[in-house]
Specification:
Blueprint lengths: L2 H11 L4 E5 L5 E7 L14 E5 L7 E4 L3 E7 L17 H19 L5 E11 L5 H11 L4 E7 L3 E7 L2 E6 L2 E12 L10 H18 L3 E6 L3 E5 L2 E12 L5 H8 L7 E2 L1 H11 L10 E5 L1 E2 L4 E2 L1 E6 L3 E4 L3 E10 L5 H19 L1
Antiparallel strand pairs: 1-2, 1-7, 2-5, 3-4, 3-15, 6-14, 6-20, 7-8, 8-19, 9-10, 9-18, 10-13, 11-13, 12-13, 15-18, 16-17, 19-20
Helix pairs in contact: 2-7
The structure holds ligand ISJ.
């Protein structure tokens, strides 16, 4: 093992917190190694470091640059072999629960309780926590255009993921974000068409982002919706950017957006209540956010933030991986199809568990 991953392994063996990550299309891996095992938070998002935030609540776990050793590995070329993951399909009970959940969601939309809700499930599969470095290497070699990470804190647990979705990127006074929604399988050489359900759910996300940013920014511009690939999946995406007004804090923007309708629903409050009441499990950090705040640690430049939504992720316990997978529900959702969508999405992580 090289020096970089040896340091990570030692940190883990000491039971000290760390986060390792690789930004989309970058050939650098960065790691924050905490100098002690304390659990720190930064709910104001006003310091320089790395944040790991849950779906619900403001316990934004924080790696402060002042309390971390930051190490980097430039250019990598791993040759981890991907063997086939023996996928056992979820039981009928799991399927029935998810289908009922989606039906309940559609019902609530028809009763005008909200217009979109993102409903998810947790799936546990065999895995080995001691293989986390190999899993991480597989993630970054397989999903080059995703934000790949491995987070560990002895008081919180271990999480890994390869997320295709940016929450916000900030460069001085310029903010960029994306509206991502709608899912279909990527099939080589097949022409891509999108149905009205997918177009509508993605439009909801774009409109929400524009409305939420308005008080804090000026000169909003956006691209037309386009098809973007994430692993074995395709999504509809719109890039949005704007100028941040002076006096606006990073937390103003993050809290206005998080959790976006790509992960929660619309209106946010009602959809979130429905999720917490009906999903039947705790999302913890799935559909939270994570990333660098107030500094670009790859290039050592201040006044930059690079934050992603925590999707296509797993919580890695000693001998089990908990996968978290969801999808946007609108009035036109077909419950059976939504269940199949969660199966397709679960393949992102299953692929690297083999
Ligand atoms: C909620 C998830 O993904 C989100 C939901 C999508 C959808 O509903 O089509 C697409 C991309 C993501 O914004 C997930 O992967 O768990």
């Amino acid at each position: 093992m090289d020096v970089f991953f040896e340091s990570i392994q030692q940190q883990f063996d000491k039971n000290f917190p760390f986060v390792i990550y690789n930004k989309p299309n970058s050939d650098k891996i960065i790691a924050f190694l905490s100098l002690d095992d304390s659990l720190s938070f930064n709910e104001k998002l006003d310091k320089k470091g790395f944040v790991f935030a849950p779906f619900d609540g403001d316990d934004f776990i924080f790696f402060d640059e002042q309390n971390s050793e930051i190490i980097k590995k430039a250019s990598f070329n791993f040759d981890e072999s991907l063997t086939e993951f023996i996928d056992i399909l979820p039981s009928n009970n799991v399927k029935t629960f998810h289908i009922n959940l989606v039906e309940k969601g559609v019902e609530a939309i028809k009763l005008n309780q909200f217009s979109k809700v993102v409903l998810s499930r947790k799936e546990s599969v065999p895995a080995n926590q001691s293989d986390f470095i190999s899993y991480f290497k597989k993630l970054i070699q397989t999903y080059k255009s995703a934000f790949c990470y491995c987070f560990y804190h002895p008081k919180v647990g271990m999480w890994l993921g390869a997320t295709p979705e940016q929450l916000v990127k900030i460069n001085e006074n310029i903010i960029s974000t994306v509206a991502l929604a709608g899912t279909q399988l990527f099939i080589e050489n097949q022409k891509v068409t999108w149905g009205d359900k997918e177009k509508e759910e993605q439009l909801f996300v774009t409109q929400f982002i524009e409305e939420s940013l308005k008080p804090f920014v000026k000169n909003i511009t956006k691209t037309k919706p386009f098809t973007a690939q994430a692993g074995n999946l395709l999504h509809i995406k719109t890039d949005v950017s704007a100028e941040i007004k002076s006096e606006v804090m990073l937390s103003d923007i993050v809290l206005a957006l998080h959790p976006t309708p790509a992960l929660c629903g619309l209106p946010k409050k009602e959809a979130k209540e429905f999720i917490i009441k009906n999903e039947g499990y705790n999302r913890k950090f799935y559909s939270g956010f994570l990333g660098e705040i107030n500094k670009d640690f790859e290039n050592n430049e201040d006044n930059k933030s690079d934050i992603f939504v925590n999707l296509r992720c797993m919580e890695l316990e000693k001998e089990i991986a908990n996968l978290f997978i969801g999808g946007g529900i609108t009035k036109d959702s077909v419950p059976e199809n939504e269940f199949i969508e969660t199966i397709n999405k679960s393949k992102t992580i299953k692929k690297i568990l083999g």
